[in-house]
Amino acid sequence: LQQLSKQFYLYDQTTNEKGVVDAVNDVDLDILSGETLGLVGESGCGKSTLGRCILRLIEPTAGKIIYEDQNLLEIPEKAFKPYRKKMQIVFQDPFASLNPRKSIRFILEEPLIIHGMSNSQDRKNRLDETIDKVGLTQDDLNRYPHEFSGGQRQRIGIARALILKPDFIVCDEPVSALDVSIQAQILNLLIDLQQEMRLTYLFISHDLSVVKHISNRIAVMYLGRIVEIAPTEEIFENPLHPYTTALLSSIPAPDPTMKKDRLILEGDPPSPLNPPTGCRFHTRCPQQMDICSKKVPERKAITSEHHVYCHLYNDLGNS
Ligand code: SF4
Ligand code: MG
Prior knowledge:
globular; alpha/beta; binds iron/sulfur cluster; 31% helix; eight-stranded mixed β-sheet; binds magnesium ion; 13 strands
């Protein structure tokens, strides 16, 4: 992704304020083939919007999405179908995304028909192969979404994302609505499927402890901008951006006797209708300096793989 932005025109009925919401602002992000890139941040920071922009479920306002040397945003809608097949999404709430009046068989078979698999035996084979991968049975195919538990429904949501054999899946908070005991099952399923089918994931979550187990790298987002990106271990062991530090300290320690320096984020994030100038985090940052409200921090490479947007740091070293 290069300098991807999405602005929404929004009319806020409570304040009568009209404006442009800068949901995603100048995001530069590489997603490497075969990896899981975790994308974390508070709700409303633009994570889901970014995920949907990549799939062109919503059209970005500006920027480029480069996939196999093509800028996807330059491909006309009509010619985009083959790319749709390659890029899928798993939603947080599978129930809301599954048509309650259709059987699971219909729900899973429909994308195959849309994408031109006309032979019914081919469709049956693909269907059988896919339900087997996610742990559903033949009987399940004749049932309806409301007959399943949350975890089972998410298996259906995953099956629907997989049925076209995609390369890339945006997982948008896929376990956030599930019981903790079920979360691990679904995460493990996603990990197994990734290896088996050589999938690339963008894994969106507000919860760092969820992305930790599945991500190779983590990007932290605040109010529409990426603030830090690094390999997962590096984010946990050497977080640099004050916002990342704050997110990490909000995770309960596995051993409560081990006191961490807790940094509590005060207040809600500012409105994206009117984001703070300079570094967008400066209104909540304990380390803010004069320059922070004046100048947008540039991307600094601390190592080749660890990048941070904060005035405290310079390239390849610290302040
Ligand atoms: Fe804090 Fe300034 Fe860094 Fe922003 S740029 S995170 S306000 S120190
Ligand atoms: Mg969201």
